[in-house]
Amino acid sequence: MDIAFKCPHCQQELEVDLGAAGQQLSCPTCSRLITVPQPEPANTKAPPPPSGPAPAKEAKHFSVPVTAGPSAPLIQKSQALLDVVASTGPRQLHIKTIRHIDCKEVGHDNFDKIVTDALGKIGEEAIISINTINYSYVEMGTQKLLNDFGVLIVYKA
Fold first, then answer.
1. Could you report the per-residue pLDDT of 72-87, keeping only the tens digit for each?
2. Residue 83 confidence (pLDDT)
3. How far apart are CA 119 and CA 98, in angstroms?
């Protein structure tokens, strides 16, 4: 339960836990020291009662349908990706990897342009997946291990 009362100085409505009765605290509005009053039936707040009676537990009996023959699938599964590629003819899977470091020129980062051009040449209908890659390499000049990123494109050709 909580005690609800007003600050005697600024009339700010306050609410504190029942255990704080008789203690002094600072009003959060006017910062003056006040004493929390003792609980009275008029200034205590009980937690709200649950709304309505608790619902009775309902016993549910489920049954599994039984069929004489094989059941029909409820969800049609799509063909596996490689089955689709194989069924479209003699097209083969290809992989194109574009590394960010290979797209840098002095003062220019052409990674986005090079990836866009590659995707345009491949064609949207031929693309199977586009995956980001992260890799590490040793820079020859400083002999430091550096991290970089790139794109791996899987497509049909």
1. 666 666 555 555 555 5
2. 57
3. 11
